[in-house]
Here is the input.
Amino acid sequence: MKKLFYALTQSLGLESGQQNGRPQGFEQLGRVVPDASRCVQCGVCGYNCPVGIPVRDYAHRGLPVDDPNCLTCGNCIQVCPRGTLRWETKMHGLIVNRFPTMILPTPVSPNETAGLS
Amino acid sequence: MNPIHYLIIGNGAAGVSAAETICYNDPAGKITIVSAEPHPMYSRPGLAYVLLGAISPKQVFARQPEWYAHHRINLVHGQAVQLDSVKQQVKLDNGQVLPYDQLLIATGARATPAPYRGSDLQGVVFLDTLEGTRDLIRQAKRARRAVVIGGGITALELSEGLAHRGVETHYFVRRNRLWSQVFNDGEAKVLEERMREHGVIIHYNTEAVEILGNKRGRVRGVQLKSGEEFKCDIVGVAIGVKPQLDLVRETPLKVDRAILVNEFMESNVPHIYAAGDCAQVYDRWTDQYMLDILWPSAVAEGRAAGLNMSGRQSAYVKGSPFNACLLFGLHIAAIGQINPGRETPGADGATGDEAEVVQHLSRGSSEVWFTLPQLYASAWSEDGPNTVRLVLSGDYLVGALVIGDQSLADSLRYIIENQIDIRDLIPALRAGGRALRQSVTQFWYQLSSSQAQSPLYQQAR
Here is the structure.
């Protein structure tokens, strides 16, 4: 599995290296990134973290959660009541840059639209 | 040179962010924070999640006592009662006198008590302080029936929390629609449906006039305007907040609804600054001095005040007020001017209610939300519980309310905050429905790719 992962990351041209004590290549999985302006420091994120990372402190400073113990489980993102946290992957940036049309919506037929003004 | 004495009154979002900024800017300065509550700083918006049971009360502390020691901040517990701007000192209720070179008033706001008789009975609860919330949780264990009075986010959070704790919760709406200053008919319907799913019973056109008590001084029920008596054990009151201005009452400080400050967060008296809920800041969107009861605004104002106090002059530009919250499992993001006022003329819009709106500013909302832009038009898209309402003024977007699916919230916020011209987009927006969502997405994509670096990436850094 690990080998496959290396092969995948290398084939996509991503640089890999040891980071924060995590195994090589694993940082490519992604990380939790906060939007400090949405955070109200309620602490729901850290309370729900299975390994007790103080996610709130990262969010306060607007820093990505680069904790070596992060399991990348995504609990904190799911429970945050204000939508402060999101998942950021290098893969995602790469895909968006290479295939920008992928995220564009498809046009709709006029009978599907209805609205008030 | 002697170190500068910085005195900060208030241990909330604004006070602590100011202290942090000063600490960074002037490491030699002596910082003292006066806290009226016997705790380190805690997250007031987080109290709703304590009530809901999402976190334990211990978890709500955003700073530990060690944090203050580590930043060499002196935390003093006590209520500031007297301010002498000539001698430059503040007196506390325990007799202590604290001199200052630079003073920040960040006393925040407190819940307005119910304007009826019987509002001091046991069983009348607020979601405002940590003590109050603990007491509320204790009472909710025994209570069977609760009444929640008030419009606004806090009232909804209160009813959600009580319902989750197994109390039969009745929510009183004064008119025929929920929070008519912010929600339009469609949005109110979506939220009302969710409330019913969560077990909250909504009573329309119902108003309490008195809280009734029994012999032991406990709540027995409420007297309705229609003359009926409604039995309950708890009355949750969240009709709004009032900036705490007792300290500045007899001082030369200029006060309107709160302390008036210039763009450097400075009041009319030198060396006295104000930030947070108790400061009224110039708003470039409405061209007026506006009151924000929002956490992000308080943090930004505190930071600006901290910079100016420690000698780094920097003007504070108020962003468009933004709040994101989770109510009954629905994410709601409100940005800028979102009054649905003119859409329902005559019925129950905000026309003629201006004075009342100001009075009933509740926690988590901003005065700017309730104002109407000069040229008003709106666009609306509905898809089950996911709604988007845009408020347009001329060629610009001035407000948005996004309920449910939040994928558009960040892009809309960027468009509003940076006053991006959207005149080409307006016909598509007015069409509403799915076309609205798609045209915003498309516009956002073009915007991000047209700039050298996408705003999303800049935001991430």
Notes: Residues 19 and 67 of chain A are 10 Å apart (CA to CA). The first helix of chain A runs from residue 2 to 11. Chain A is about 30% helix and 5% strand.
